[in-house]
């Protein structure tokens, strides 16, 4: 018998692309009557975005840009790192090289790290769908943490417009470690 362990919690997320990409995850998490408030990994749309990679290949006829090798996206205090990042943009919505592309989705792979300075998320792969307003992080071990509060599963699904999220265990068990010192004082 297979048991699918899943933890539901509230996460508020938005993905804003100004040139290439921006991400915000803010969560208010709860599990088995224990709760933890987590501030977000965030990039805002009012700050410049800096992107570095070993290689950039722009394929305008295919409406995509492929960044490979040590990809690093920085906006404000938030950093996204991955081995590769492919940005898919809508046909007729501008171009990546002009900075006016209408982004459809972004896929990242090869050791994904999102870091806001206060919150970190790690995964093997990630997909940000701007059309459907979804964020999916996948891997053998997906870890979302803020300080000593840690959530571990294999897939994190976030509906960015509503903030609803689901952390899946994929055949194992979801693991959560909450620091009692992180609770708000009343």
In CATH, the topology is named lipopolysaccharide transport protein A fold
Percent helix among the residues?
Answer: under 10%
How much strand content do the residues show? over 45%
What is the 3D form?
A: elongated
Number of domains: 1
Q: How many helical stretches?
A: 0
Q: Which regions are unreliable across 5 or more consecutive residues at pLDDT < 50?
A: 1-44
**Total E-strand runs:** 13
Question: What kind of oligomer do you see?
Answer: single chain
Distance between the termini: 44 Å
* CATH class category: Mainly Beta
Helix-and-strand structural type = mainly beta
> Looking at this structure, what is the CATH superfamily?
Lipopolysaccharide (LPS) transport protein A like domain
> Largest sheet, described in full?
13 strands, antiparallel
CATH architecture: Sandwich
Arithmetic mean pLDDT: 74
One letter per element, helices H and strands E, the order comes to EEEEEEEEEEEEE
Compute the CA-based radius of gyration.
17 Å
How is this structure best described in words?
- With 186 residues, the chain is mainly beta.
- It has one domain: lipopolysaccharide transport protein A fold (Sandwich), CATH 2.60.450.10.
- 0% of the residues lie in helices and 62% in strands.
- It has strands at 6-15, 23-31, 34-42, 50-52, 55-59, 64-75, 78-89, 103-115, 120-129, 134-146, 149-159, 164-168, 175-177.
- Strands 1, 2, 3, 4, 5, 6, 7, 8, 9, 10, 11, 12 and 13 form a 13-stranded antiparallel β-sheet that branches.
- Strand 8 and strand 9 form a beta hairpin.
- The protein is elongated, with a radius of gyration of 17 Å.
- 33% of the residues are buried.
- InterPro entries: LPS_export_LptA, OstA-like_N.
- Residues 1-31 form the signal peptide.
- Pfam families: LptD_N.
- Keywords: Signal.
- Residues 50-163 form the Organic solvent tolerance-like N-terminal domain.
